[in-house]
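Materials and Methods. Structural model of 4-hydroxy-tetrahydrodipicolinate synthase. The 295-residue sequence of 4-hydroxy-tetrahydrodipicolinate synthase from Vibrio caribbeanicus ATCC BAA-2122 was retrieved and submitted for structure prediction as follows.
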Amino acid sequence: MFSGSIVALITPFNSEGEVDYTSLKNLVEHHISAGSDGIVAVGTTGESATLTIEEHVKVVTKVVEFADGRIPVIAGTGANATHESVTFSRLLNNSGIAGCLSVTPYYNKPTQEGLFQHYKAIAEASDVPLILYNVPGRTSVDLLPETVARLAKIENIVALKDATGDLSRIAIHRELCGEDFILLSGDDSTGLEFVKQGGDGVISVTNNIAAREMAMIFDLASKKEYPEAELINQRLMTLHKNLFVESSPIPVKWAALQLGLIEHGGLRLPLTELSESARPIVAQALEDAGIESLN
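The predicted structure was written out as tokens:
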């Protein structure tokens, strides 16, 4: 259902700070032509925390409209209030999305039982397949494998995006959740190794600016042609790292602007544009990866 190279899509803004739907459409077309296997619209990389509910729903529905059935669209529905995630799920239930991706509540630091009840409530609010998202480095809460296993028994909870970078969890999740449960990496640096050890794919920040290369890597990996995949991935390794030289999506938005993928590189406060000192670091990573401007 969900596999390969899935982009955690940035949300482009215009010079007034409003969503730039022209650039958004161009991004969707870019990923379709580059061979991406799916799009996450308004996930955390899409600055979901700074969009209103109305903007959030509109961006997702526009991505579905632009994709026109040519690529699966997954809606970000994460929030640190369960009722807000439930609202997103209900509003998007009949929008044409292929699934929802919901990050663990941030700041609240719920218990494992709280996490279970949170995701159970989201799953019950919609028939759409739900992907759990664990990124403790950003949320300060860790969705433990035993809790994932409990949630995997709920019919429409079908996958986990694991951004812990802990490859030892792959075998644990597979044993606890079964072969049909989908495991997706949320860590670009270890994404290929994640698939080599039994994962199904990656939801990627790097994919925003290296879509064709990422598609090639995970297509090769699906055929177990690992040496060829490793060669491409090694070329992107500095990029995987340096797209996080400042808080994501600050560096990836700057890179997308340099490459001509978006018209403006703006972010919404409290995020600000990439610092002058970090720009050469990201520029060098683009050069090392052989990623060239589309202009």
